[in-house]
Write a structure and sequence with these properties.
- The chain is α/β, with parallel strands linked by helices.
- Among the domains are: about 10-25 and about 295-319; about 45-220, Rossmann fold, CATH 3.40.50.410.
- It has helices spanning about 10-30, 60-75, 105-115, 125-140, 160-170, 185-190, 195-200, 215-220, 285-315, and strands at about 45-50, 80-90, 95-100, 145-150, 175-180, 200-205.
- A six-stranded mixed β-sheet has the order 3-2-1-4-5-6, with helices on both faces.
- The chain starts with 9 loop residues before the first helix and ends in a 5-residue tail after the last helix.
- About 25% of the residues are buried.
Length: about 325
């Protein structure tokens, strides 16, 4: 007796179409994009100087802590590579060293999130002085000393932050500053940082935008890794006489041109891309796993479709 093939019902056809659309959508969706992560493996002594004044809300202070944590995680922190310390400042005499200059990455991260906001006014001069004191007492000779200032306001206490910064720079410290919101005086920050101010002073509209300067800040603050210099072996050659080069006589009526000398070039300075331009390269980390996940979902949907179709096709017609 010949079995009749059962035709697909309208509801079953709709289920199959839905499965096919799900598989197509999954396979067509692009992997997420993210900014490339910039890392720094150079030796550096870095002091981060944070504003703990009362104008910063607890949630903004928490955002700043997260930014500092992400910033430090970009450096290879160890006794031989990057060493980091944390200072918090507010009113005169309230500033404190939250963590002395150290190469213990885990302890530094713990200290960041264990900080409690001081809450006071804004003594930037004291913050710079405390940061520089750590670099003077505990900094390594022959290693770049860097101080990073984050503030949402202007100095409003006794003392002169610009003079304090000049003293720190005279001791060899490179100073960066990040002004957050409309409170900081940009002229003050430009006078505090190391020249060129365009490469050392940053400004963002609010604390949530700190993430937009994370990668370019790490890139420009990271000292260049020294390149090993090959030692040439001296070979004794017999002296040879080189005939003097002929002196060309100027053409009649010609005016001698100016003598040019080689221009010295600054090595190791990375130009900062425009802040917030979103022109950083996409990060493909995790992209392969996303594509594999999409392929597996699509294959599973196809197998399910074939199995359901086969089952309905083989099911005998009911009398």
């Amino acid at each position: 007796m010949t079995r009749m093939m059962r035709p697909l019902s309208a509801s079953m056809a709709a289920v199959i179409v839905a499965l096919l659309l799900l598989a197509a959508t999954t396979l067509a969706s692009p992997p997420p994009r993210a900014h490339a992560q910039t890392g720094c493996s150079s030796a550096i002594d870095l002091m981060v100087v944070l504003d703990g004044s009362e104008s910063i809300s607890w949630s903004e202070f928490d955002t700043m802590q997260g930014f500092v944590s992400d910033l430090i995680s970009r450096f290879t922190v160890s006794p031989a590579d990057a060493r980091v310390g944390i200072v918090q400042f507010a009113g005169e005499g309230q500033g404190r060293v939250e963590w002395a200059l150290s190469g213990d990455a885990g302890a530094i991260q713990t200290a960041i999130f264990d900080m409690t906001q001081i809450i006071g006014v804004t003594d930037i001069q004291e913050g710079i002085a405390l940061g520089q004191e750590q670099l003077t007492l505990n900094g390594r000779a022959g290693v770049p000393h860097v101080l990073l200032l984050l503030t949402d306001g202007e100095h409003n206490q006794p003392g002169d932050p610009i003079a304090e910064a000049e003293l720190a720079r005279s001791l060899g410290t490179e100073i960066f500053a990040v002004g957050i919101g409309a409170g900081p005086k940009l002229d003050e920050l430009n006078a505090i940082v190391t020249a060129l101010a365009s490469e050392h002073a940053f400004s963002v509209d609010n604390f949530d935008e700190l993430v937009t300067i994370l990668e370019p800040l790490v890139e420009i603050a990271c000292p260049p890794t020294p390149t090993p210099t090959a030692t040439a072996t001296a070979t004794t050659m017999p002296p040879t006489e080189t005939p003097p080069a002929p002196i060309e006589s100027p053409m009649p009526g010609a005016t001698p041109g100016p003598t040019t000398s080689p221009t010295s070039e600054v090595i190791g300075v990375t130009r900062l891309p425009p802040v917030g331009s979103n022109t950083l390269a996409p990060n493909r980390e995790g992209g392969d796993s996303r594509l594999q996940e999409q392929a597996l979902v699509g294959a599973a949907s196809a197998i399910l479709f074939l199995a359901v179709t086969y089952w309905f096709a083989r099911r005998p017609e009911q009398p």
